[in-house]
Amino acid sequence: SVKAGTREGYCFYDEGIRLQLRAEKAIEHDMEAALRKHEFIVYYQPKVSPESDRITCSEALVRWRKPDGQMIQPGQFIPVFEKNHSIPLLDRYVFESVCIWLRRMLDEGKPALPVSVNVSCLQFYSSDFVKTYREIRDRYRIPRGLLEIEFTETILFDDWHVMNRTVKQLKDAGFICSIDDFGKGYSSLSTVKNLDIDVLKLDAVFFQDTGTLEKDRQLVAGIIHMVRQLGITTVAEGIETWEQVEFLRGIRCDLIQGYVYYKPMPQEEYEALLINESGEYGRDAGVRQPEG
Ligand code: C2E
Ligand code: MG
Ligand code: MG
Ligand code: MG
């Protein structure tokens, strides 16, 4: 760890940093073994239309279940995998898991709604990214429009041409393209201007004060209105109160992803929910339920 540190020009006076680096090294080392042992599992969080209160699609979110049963949240390991550039391995694993599940749903005649997966935006610069994802998708014969790629701008894009080429290739291949965490980090209106994306996911930071501050309500309403005019689907993330839902419904935000409707849940639970919901079509299905 001292070697890595000196390479980057740091000095480790701080025992805390040293311990953290050691923990990161351990996580890195564990990843490939964990992949082989299927310790990574995919949770699904529904996205709901506030207009109908119905689930329209979901996001796949990875968790790490250690052999001792401990569940580790992505915030603890994704940044490490990003740092050492091993994240594409995990992203592909999650993507393939989703394809396998969708294939089974289709085979069993169960409701198969679109699923989005997260990919590190580093992958957008790798030439075989689209090809790899297309091959996996084709292997499981997943129809166009059932898979969505979410990417977060964690680096400042300067080459819109390269980015747009990737977005175009993804869309040509039948993937839906989304910008995640809009409003947080580097993403800005130039992203919307420069990239031909399908979906914009507004980060929770946007909604924190929409319950109280008129200025924030106006700002969010303006952004959602403008983005909709461009034909882009809007998703509000991190929504926790019915007051927020009411507001978002009023300004015609397309979809809501938040604890107010559902938390991320294991695949079996989401599958049961979808089957239950599809059986209740035509009735006012109470989709709200606490999740564990
Ligand atoms: P994200 O892609 O923005 O996913 C949304 C995160 O917000 C999820 O956290 C979700 O559980 C959380 N969330 C949703 N609604 C609420 C709410 O109402 N309140 C609060 N407090 N949180 C809410 P999670 O599952 O911990 O994932 C964190 C991040 O880790 C994700 O943010 C994503 O950037 C990354 N991630 C997760 N799975 C993958 C993956 O397979 N590949 C990559 N590259 N990144 C992933
Ligand atoms: Mg996401
Ligand atoms: Mg993200
Ligand atoms: Mg997000």
UniProtKB/TrEMBL annotation:
Name of this protein: GGDEF domain-containing phosphodiesterase
Residue ranges occupied by any EAL domain in the UniProt entry: 24-278
Residues of the full protein shown: 345 to 636 of 648
